[in-house]
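Query form — protein GGDEF domain-containing protein

QUESTION: What is the three-dimensional structure of this chain?
INPUT:
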Amino acid sequence: MDNPFLLTILSIILVGLIVIIIVINSSKRKKASILTQIEILTDELDRQKKENISLRNELRMITSLDNLFFSSIIRLTSRTEPAEIAREAVGLLLNYLNATQVAFFFLDEREKRLNIVAQMGLNENWLPKLVYEVGEGKVGMAAEKRIPLGKHESEMLRIKEPYPVFEPDMCYPLVYQNRLFGVIAFKRNEQLDEREKNMVGVVARITATALQNTLSLTIMRDLASIDPLTKLYNIGAFRDKLVEELNRSKRFQHPLSLAIIDLDNFKYFNDTYGHQLGDQILIKLARAFGIHLRETDIIGRYGGDEFIVMFPETKKNEATKIMKDLLDTIRLENFLNIQSEKKITFSAGVASYPEDGINPSEIIKNADEALYEAKNAGRNQVRMHLHKVEEI
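ANSWER: The structure tokens for GGDEF domain-containing protein are given below.
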């Protein structure tokens, strides 16, 4: 083909076809690349969606646990008795940490011992034996050092556990403003993470604060119910106790007796040697009553130089014998650091439920009548109300 023009046209057409083919192939590659990228993005979006669902479920679970945690904390801080606080703290840690064993120990400040008062997961037969001296085992060392102790700290301090039945993983001291109340200890299969450690620390601090509040409440109750001089119940608190015991006596058909005590010659000592000596006599007598009467007997200061004693589940003749023995003991004791012809003695009257009354006022009135007869008969004696009052 010799026509140059035709050759030029054919060349142009060929080049155009090549360009078109190249463009088409390039578009296909771009389209394939775009489709690949779309598939990758779709997979990534699916992965993120699944991850978001997982995170949302985890967040929902954490929120649920946090709600449970905070509701448990509210219950704990609302308790007004130390034993109730201990039980709440044990239950909270057992559930929240998935612990296998939790034990709560109170400090006996006088004996320097830690006694178990609440627990979950331990063998009941071993509970009376789980007593730690301060500094003994991980529980005692946490109390002595006043710092949380775990396995690592235990190994560093070379702590030996005295009881193979309870080898706690963590022990937290319960401290409020340098006052140690006790230790809470627990065992679980997994290590604590930082969030859990912080949570246990919060529980320990809140528990110590709740115990301090309980102590403050007890002090306030004492101020309202305890006579400041003798440390016995005041008459208001004693009457409340009398109502409680009388209701219990009625419910279980038990007897109940009551004695009113009046000190002989107290006015003489008070006027002759001063009120300070008179106060010392009252304090020493109150202490002697507490020592020589039974633990179940309830003693109060009736007012001035008078005392009142309640004898639950005790018949009148039994209570009268107890009072007579008490008078014999008081006669022999020397309450004065002075030389005096007069001795400290008392007169007393005894009445009981149901013989002499079915309510507090009747019983107190009849005991007072018996006391009046004892004083009129020469003092230094005990009489019981027998409708016609007789000397014992």
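ADDITIONAL NOTE: The chain has a mean pLDDT of 84.
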